[in-house]
Amino acid sequence: MDALFQFLRQLINGLQSGSIYALVALGYTMVYGIVKLINFAHGDIIMIGAYCTLFFITLFAGAGLPVWLSVIPAMIFCALLGMLCERVAYRPLRHSPRISSLITAIGISLLLQNGAQLIFSPNPQSVPKIFSADALTFGSFSISIGAIITIVVSLAIMAALQAFVKGTRLGKAMRAVSEDDGAAKLVGINVNSTIQLTFAIGSALAAVGSMLYISAYPQVQPTMGSLLGLKAFVAAVLGGIGIIPGAMIGGLIMGIFESLTKAYISSQLSDAVVFGILIIVLLVKPSGILGKNTKEKV
Amino acid sequence: MTKKTAFSYGINLLAVLVLFFVLLLLNKQGIINKYVLGILTLICINIILAVSLNVTTGCLGQIALGHAGFMSAGAYTAAIFTQAGIIPGVGGYFAGLLLGGLVAAIIGIIIGLPALRLRGDYLAIITLAFGEIIRVVIENMTITGGAQGLKGIKKLSAYDISLFGMNADFTAFAIVFFLMVLSVVLMYTMMVSRHGRAILAIREDDIASEAAGVNNTYYRTLAFTVSAFFAGIAGGMYAHYIGILGAKSFDFNKSIEILITVVLGGLGSFTGSVVSAIALTSLPELLRQFSDYRMLVYSIVLILVMIFKPSGLMGTKEFSLSRIFGGRKKVSSEKGSDTQ
């Protein structure tokens, strides 16, 4: 029975971190879907989001407001930052070779990381508790509130986003631009603002992800975004890049495998296992778990 | 060999020798001290790394994000080989480099055969994943010293060899320098040969090249393997320059650093890679007093260069001495936009 509880606990840990990966992966997947750019700066937007959340936590705690509300200004800030990055760095390069925009994204990532190091110092700062430490208990088994909130919030956001993309006019515009931006322009879609909107949504989701992340691992530092971003990106590719439910599935698979490897095999090897799964999936089905095969036209 | 190529080989050999003797003279005068010599050695190593990645990314047109993995494979192999002391003296160093290159090349084939079925971004991701796996594996093996790293690798300057009256430090640099020249020449001559043209054809249009009878899989793997081989050699040289290895220093960021060097220099341009490797290695040393703002400036410059000159500093062009001194017009130049 203990072994079963242990396994369930690891599973829930995995679901919790997997949900965070999934939220971040949504940002990667939406941006990739629409401009075919691996936005390496996305991980650092998470870091900025975390610092922003931390700043508003102290502000809100002083004003007597619930601290989780600090995610709202962080979301707004990150959305603006994402739009700014797009406007300044990615839009001029939209029709250049892919590798140039990739390098620009890396440049933005370095800029944010080193800027944060100058402003906030490279030392990690600790974060006060965001959710109450209570746990739901079923007999001798307990789940922390934070884990439940994380899983529920990310599932809800994923569903809302899917509804937005499939159901609304703006979502339709997004899908049209990702299919063919020239044709989208011809039918009267404002391509630039649609792409801006995509960046804004992706970055706002990164802010939510960063709040959930620091509620689980209460520490912020300027380099926190790089590994989280890399893993979330792997999750996006795993599920099929450009596909919203794919990001969710990819994130959850990554989280579960990572936590089970850490618990039962070796904590050092967890990264290798995660990347190994990515390699196997890419070799068997290059477009990802939910991806569709595209035919090569001559 | 036509008269023109003979002339071009001659003038480039002359330029290399002149550069070397100028450095030697400056060293004798005491202007180049041990510290500067160290930076020059690093420049040579980074040139090999950049030029070797240029074969995959510039000439084959595939983004690879795992170059540091090959470098670390070569570095650890060479270091473990010389530490075992199977071949004593400087012969062991050369054998270690060669072995490091071969191990990296074998890993390159193992990774390349499956990975090169993918294109573009997916290839970038899978090479990233392989690079990270190489790092984790090295971190968890006992022969590589695990997470503590490998210590006490005998530096090349500690072999205490002095050729032609040069001191040991300069001899060590001379060996690295001429190995660098040899590596760049080998890669360049490969790229201007029939095989190189096949690789360029794949970059321009892989379906057309396949239809024209180029064995795409063979040439893709060849370019990737050659790239890995020289990265391994550079890794071995790095190990025997720095004397201590840690798997952490060969992570994703190192791969990115090499890629940035290549892209800034201009994809497909060998001289561009060389110039950019020299600039990107020496500038941080020159700007040491601004070290707080160094990375900030670096990232801004990177973004600006990409916005205003997306094809890099040299584009796909080459800087050619024979064209300057020969006065003759070059008949053909490798043109063509990057399709990626």
Question: What does this protein look like?
Answer:
- The complex is a heterodimer of chains A (about 300) and B (about 350).
- Chain A has helices at about 1-35, 40-65, 70-90, 100-120, 145-165, 170-180, 180-185, 190-215, 225-240, 245-265, 270-285; strands spanning about 125, 135-140, 140-145, 220.
- With about 300 residues, chain A is mainly alpha-helical.
- Chain A has a single domain, classed as ABC transporter involved in vitamin B12 uptake, BtuC.
- In chain A, the strands form two sheets. Chain A has a two-stranded antiparallel sheet. A two-stranded antiparallel ribbon of chain A has the order 2-3.
- In chain A, strand 2 and strand 3 (about 140-145) form a beta hairpin.
- Chain A is globular.
- The model of chain A has no long low-confidence stretch (mean pLDDT about 85).
- Chain B has helices at about 5-30, 35-60, 65-85, 90-115, 120-140, 170-190, 195-205, 205-210, 215-240, 250-265, 270-285, 290-310, 320-325.
- Chain B is globular, with a radius of gyration of 20 Å.
- The model of chain B is unreliable at about 330-340 (pLDDT under 50).
- Chain B has a single domain (about 5-325), classed as ABC transporter involved in vitamin B12 uptake, BtuC (Orthogonal Bundle).
- The longest helix of chain B has 27 residues, at about 215-240.
- Chain B is mainly alpha-helical and about 350 residues long.
- Chain B starts with a helix and ends in a 14-residue tail after the last helix.
- In chain B, helix 6 crosses helix 7 (about 195-205) and helix 7 (about 195-205) crosses helix 9.
- Chain B has 13 helices and no strands.
- Classes of the chains: A mainly alpha (about 300), B mainly alpha (about 350).
Keywords:
heterodimer; A: 298 residues; mainly alpha; ABC transporter involved in vitamin B12 uptake, BtuC; two-stranded antiparallel ribbon; 11 helices; 4 strands; 73% helix; 4% strand; B: 340 residues; globular; disordered C terminus
